[in-house]
Structure formats: structure tokens, C-alpha cells
């Protein structure tokens, strides 16, 4: 709970800094990337066993792009993640609101939410396979669970933390409970919901590879798993980089949406 | 004198680890229609709780609060409340904030617009009607909150240390502005403050409260005519009244 509460604070300083990132920082970022690639090349050439050079990885990436494997895998993975993530957050938002707004709902749901939060979603995989088979369903289910559990707490916290003075201000102007909920609680907790969604996306993405260990036929995790069997490190690197880039892109998109939707916040 | 707001033998207690805490101990008070009353007292004297009961946000443990002779049914737009923390909806512009209460009254859009404009103009925020609260200074935020309360045209204004967080200059300006609007459109005002100068400058009567348990200690009449002016602040009469209130607040006898 405490951990998620800190995560749930909207407008993390790091995210804020990224907005007006000065040119100097950008140059430094670039330098760091180039240096990293150099070190990697160096390590590969002086013969760390099996380690491919960046060029080899790039060549492999080109190959995988050309024959369509990478795109196909990426799309398969994205589909699973987005499906699980959307279902997870779409359920988390109403459940979080229920828990925040009605003490009864909180009392009934909190033990489950808190308990399942302590179980890593990956630990559910054996159970999911037994109960749901080895098709798409258990994979999406595990991702769904990961996304749901991380964003439900944030939404709930957002509703609980709505400034009571704002609620009173609406009440004295004659607002009904319904109006207060729709016009005050929902907008006031939007920043928390969006942070919850970002956390949810992070854990959904993080659960992906393991979920694809469940007898997948395609997907980035599956491809890396296959590559491991053939000692094909280049493909593993391509997979890793693809996962990183896609994860970063999705996070940035959500961050952009967050900025748009919560521009009214006072950022101190 | 016809009481607009009437507190009848109000008791408010809170359960504590060791027994009960008495926030208000048999408080009775009448506020006349269109009267400007300030309530001053040390922290913990229950002045905000008393106001909150008139707003319908807090219920007394025993006793009753009457508005126009009828028990307060809960919060309602006939009693506007202004909070110390401004309580503006940060996602709404000044205009939308002011229109919030008007929307709840189901007014036609052009009527809503007109009344919002009027209220915004009254507090001098016309140039900032489309600004978000985060871009406003503290004084402007509170003026927006006042406009929001005025817009629904309440008969009673309940103000809970509204200028408490502002700098001295802004505070004096807003006091004058408040009196100015009050003299043009008289309403019943119950104004909570811990600032003795402010209490005397604004009110026709100053209610001095004492703490532990919260109770009315003394009621001081301010026989200075409206409109109040800067010269009055320096007059011997003002000083005399202020001393009386000051004495009432800071040299309170211990409760029996």
C-alpha cells in the first residue's frame, strides 16, 4: 500500500523534468547511448563468449524485419498486452471508484485486492494453465491480472484522497451525491487514475514475456525463448531491445495523455 | 429583531480515547437578517464548527440551528460558504467555477452566463474569466470563490477565515471590497476570523468565543457607521473596541 501510494502521487518529478528537457541533457543522453554502444562493441570484440556486436544485432534485426517475423511477433505481443491492459484498467477504474466511494465495497473488496497484490502475477501462471488451458486466454489473463491489480489501488487511493473541501464546496452549492461524484470526484482523481494506468501498463508489459512461455506460437517472448534453444544471442538482443522500445513508446504516449488531461494541476 | 440564523443551545462533543471532547458547550446565538457578524476566538473554540453547522455540513450533538425559523435541512445554495482554502475546482476556469452552482440551479445558459459575468465583474476578475485557478494569486483565487458564492445569490454568506492565508495588503483590499459589495447587496454574513482588527473593522457585532469548552464569551457591539473607512481604523473609538475584543480573546478566564 505504502509503495503504491508514493507511486500514486501524480506528477512525479522525473516526469516533470522530461517536459522541458534542455538541449544539454539531450546531448548528454546521446553521448551516453553512443558510449554504451562503444563499450558493448569493445566487450564483444575482445571476446566475451557468444556476445554479438551491435552490428550483428542490427543485421539480425534487419533480417527479422525483412522476413516479417519481428513485426508479427511484436504485433502478437502488443495485442496480448493491450488486451490484458485495457481489460485490467477498464475494470480497475470502476472497482477503484467503488472501493473509494463506498465503505461497504471497500470492506468487501480490499482483502482480495491486498492479498492478490502480494502474489506476483507470474505465480498465477501454473494455475492459469491448469484452469484455462494453453491458448491465448491464460496469457491475456495473467497480463490482465497484473494490470488490474496495479491500477486498482491507485484509482482507489485517488478517490480516497479527493480534497474534502472540494466536496463540501460542491455540496454547499446544492450538488447531489451523483453530481459530486461525476463533477468532482472523477475529475479530481483523474491524475491518480492515469498514474495507475501507467503503472498498470508497466506491469502488464513486464508480465508479457513470462506469459508467452505458456506454449506460445508467436510473440517477442516466444521468439527469445526459441532463440535461447539455438544459442542465438542476436535474436535475444533484438527481442530485448524491441520490448524496451515498445514499452518506452507506450509509456510516453500515456504520459502525453496524462499531461493533456491533467494540465490544470498545480505543479509545485 | 428577526433572527435569520439562530443557534439554540448547541452542544458538540467528539468521542476521544479518554472520555469526550466538548467542542461547543451550550452555545446560543442569534444573527439578524442582513447583519454582518464576525466570530473571533482562539483556535479550538469551535468557531468554524459553529459556522459549519449553519452551512449544514456538521450536525450538532444536541440543540438546533434554525435558518428563517426552520431547522437546517443540510447544505443548500441559500447559504453560500467561502472556505479558507479557496476550494476552487482546479480543473475549471474562473468562469466555469462561478457557473458551477448556477448549473445546478438549471438556469438557461444565457441567464447563467449573465449571472456569472456579473459575479465575476463584482469581484474584479473579468480579465481572468477564462484562466485556470493555478494561474491566479491567492487573493484572486479567493475573489473567484467569493464570486462563485455570490453567483447563486444566497441570502446568507458563511465565511470561514476567508482571508487568513493572504498577505496583509491583499487582506485589507478584500475586506474593503467585501464591505463594498455587502453594502450594495446586503445579505446576512457570518464571518469567522482570528484577526481582531479584521473582526472589528467588518462587523456590526463581534462574537468573542472562548475555548475548552467552546462557548460564547462576550458579544461586542461595533457602533461605527458604514461605510467603514481607513480613517476609522485609526480612530480612538476603533482602538477602544479593538482593545475590548482583544481583551476578551486573550485574557479569557479559565473555564469552571
TrEMBL record, chain A:
It is a multi-pass membrane protein. The chain crosses the membrane at residues 26-48, 81-103, 115-134, 140-160, 180-201, 229-250. It is found in: Cell membrane. InterPro entries: MetI-like, MetI-like_sf. One of its GO terms (biological process) is alkanesulfonate transmembrane transport. Coiled coil: none annotated. GO terms for cellular component: plasma membrane. Keywords: Cell membrane, Membrane, Transmembrane, Transmembrane helix, Transport. Residues 74-254 form the ABC transmembrane type-1 domain. Its main location: membrane. It holds the Pfam family BPD_transp_1. The keyword Transmembrane helix applies. PANTHER family: ABC TRANSPORTER PERMEASE PROTEIN MJ0413-RELATED, ALKANE SULFONATE ABC TRANSPORTER-RELATED, MEMBRANE SUBUNIT. Belongs to the binding-protein-dependent transport system permease family. This is NitT/TauT family transport system permease protein. It comes from Nonomuraea wenchangensis.
Automatic annotation (TrEMBL), chain B:
Residues 5-232 form the ABC transporter domain. CDD domains: ABC_NrtD_SsuB_transporters (cd03293). It comes from the Bacteria. GO terms for molecular function: ATP binding; ATP hydrolysis activity. It holds the Pfam family ABC_tran. Keywords: ATP-binding, Nucleotide-binding, Transport. The keyword DNA damage does not apply. PROSITE patterns: ABC_TRANSPORTER_2 (PS50893). InterPro entries: AAA+_ATPase (IPR003593), ABC_transporter-like_ATP-bd (IPR003439), ABC_transporter_ATP-bind (IPR050166), P-loop_NTPase (IPR027417). SMART domains: AAA (SM00382). This is NitT/TauT family transport system ATP-binding protein. It comes from Nonomuraea wenchangensis.
